[in-house]
């Protein structure tokens, strides 16, 4: 699969509203969410969604981001920080779709197969599409989800729109 250049299709291309999209869980997702790792996975997913959506191109992010401690950053600085964080760890590409590993801090690109190679080498199963926040199961080769993950994603999207 590492030579595969096209991503699995997502419902983004349909007329569905983004907040209405839910991917079905796969056996791997069901297994991990039924394990003792559930809370860690949900917490990691929430953090990754924030990174994915914060200052993403086309987002409704305000001109300045104000954090909980009152400090602020201009939107342009957030875009630069996001691009720096989401570069492939192997080739530093930020042009190819990148995936954040759900099990560790690795970020890899899709085009050159670095995300998939990491998953295969380290035995990690899930990558979060940095552009959309959707979860890709590397073993199934498809986007997957779960109502608990969708609830986290929708809650974060709504909180970002309200600021």
From TrEMBL:
GO molecular function, one term: zinc ion binding
SUPFAM superfamilies: RING/U-box
UBP-type domain location: 71-163
Pfam families on file: zf-UBP
Record's keyword terms, sorted: Metal-binding, Zinc, Zinc-finger
The UniProt record lists the keyword Metal-binding: yes
InterPro entries in the cross-refs: Znf_RING/FYVE/PHD (IPR013083), Znf_UBP (IPR001607)
Record has Zinc as a keyword: yes
Official protein name in the record: UBP-type domain-containing protein
Species name: Kuraishia capsulata CBS 1993
């Amino acid at each position: 699969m590492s030579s595969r250049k096209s991503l699995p299709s997502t419902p983004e291309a349909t007329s569905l509203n983004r907040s209405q999209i839910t991917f079905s869980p796969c056996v791997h997702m069901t297994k991990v969410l039924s394990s003792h790792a559930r809370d860690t996975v949900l917490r990691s997913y929430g953090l990754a969604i924030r990174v994915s959506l914060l200052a993403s191109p086309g987002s409704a992010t305000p001109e300045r981001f104000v954090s909980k401690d009152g400090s602020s950053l201009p939107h342009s600085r957030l875009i630069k920080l996001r691009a720096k964080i989401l570069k492939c760890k192997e080739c530093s590409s930020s042009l190819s779709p990148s995936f954040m590993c759900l099990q560790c801090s690795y970020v890899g690109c899709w085009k050159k197969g670095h995300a998939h190679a990491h998953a295969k080498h380290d035995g990690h199963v899930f990558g979060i599409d940095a552009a959309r926040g959707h979860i890709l199961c590397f073993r199934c080769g498809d986007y997957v989800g779960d109502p608990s993950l969708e609830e986290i994603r929708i809650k974060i999207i709504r909180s970002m729109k309200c600021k």
